[in-house]
């Protein structure tokens, strides 16, 4: 079994977007526009003082359009489109690559592009998640039904284990734990630390068995 990251070329985030059908690209642009206006208003007025109606007015959309993209106001901060892209790159890894190395390869292929192009909105979103009780409460359920569910499917597919297997569940929760650890370390450093590199280091640490002196 291979224990190192594959050297082959990986699909990048921008390449994935270019391959989307026109309708999906338009939906993605609308989604991002709503989030951009929402984050601007949250920064200017505060999260609690900003209403969905105000976001809709700024984005020039109807409330029904807003809720078609985001079920709740909290979701406009929490949701993103990265899970399907990471999943595609993960599935493209050779079958002899371990689960952890496939996961690291996916993050290393996608996350630097996202970080380079969306660093400021990412900082705003993460700081809001950490500061707002309503967002923290919603984040757990969103994570459980979103990112965790995707990761469980991927690990189950690659290992052949049932998605309900305790090993699959424990592994995926552990991955989410080290990802959150990287996020908090990044914020505590005033975002000066390179987040993609920190994520990769944390995933490697987990893959090595979390060794301590």
TrEMBL record:
Swiss-Prot/TrEMBL keywords: DNA-binding, Transcription, Transcription regulation
Lineage: Bacteria, Bacillati, Actinomycetota, Actinomycetes, Streptosporangiales
InterPro entries recorded: Homeodomain-like_sf (IPR009057), HTH-type_TetR-like_transc_reg (IPR050109), HTH_TetR (IPR001647), MftR_C (IPR041347), Tet_transcr_reg_TetR-rel_C_sf (IPR036271)
Record organism: Actinomadura vinacea
Ranges where the HTH tetR-type domain occurs: 28-88
Keyword Ligase: no
DNA-binding positions: 51-70
Name recorded for this polypeptide: TetR family transcriptional regulator
Signal peptide feature range: none
